[in-house]
Design a protein that fits this description.
Arc Repressor Mutant, subunit A, 2 strands, two-stranded antiparallel sheet, 6 helices, mainly alpha, single chain, globular
């Protein structure tokens, strides 16, 4: 097995582990009436807003009709808001509302506490090494085009 094959296998394993850690960090989080999918959409928007409905649909792997329905529900709950592109009125974007920002701040705080449990009493040097490694992975493997 050459180095690229080893990297591929390790990448697949890493992605699976990331999904498991994400699940572990969010499984005890109170969703306050949201479905798991609605929460995932909110989390995705929070990380890279504003987004178009098609970007959300593509990333989450759900159809446009389902995406539109979930976004409508989130908008009705006051967690998201739609707005038109100022240069192209046919294009709409989605962002978190003030209430949605507050909700996600609480969710991220919960996740931060869960991460803290995993890190335990890890020293600053090791934390800096992990940060540098993650930055390198984001630049080289997990970048978006």
């Amino acid at each position: 097995m050459d180095e690229r094959d080893k990297l591929f296998q390790q990448t697949v394993s890493f992605i699976a582990a990331v999904h498991q850690v994400h699940y572990d960090m969010t499984k005890t989080m109170p969703l306050h009436g949201l479905t798991a999918l609605q929460y995932e959409i909110m989390e995705f928007i929070a990380i890279d807003q504003p987004l178009t409905p098609s970007q959300i649909s593509e990333c989450k792997g759900i159809s446009m009709p389902n995406t539109s329905r979930e976004l409508r529900k989130l908008t009705e709950k006051g967690l998201c808001e739609r707005f038109d592109d100022p240069t192209d009125r046919r294009k709409q974007y989605i962002r978190l509302s003030e209430l949605g920002e507050k909700y996600m701040a609480e969710a991220f705080e919960h996740m931060k506490q869960e991460l803290g449990k995993r890190l335990g009493d890890m020293g600053e040097n090791e934390l800096q090494h992990i940060i540098a490694s993650m930055q390198h992975l984001q630049k080289t493997v997990f970048y978006s085009e």
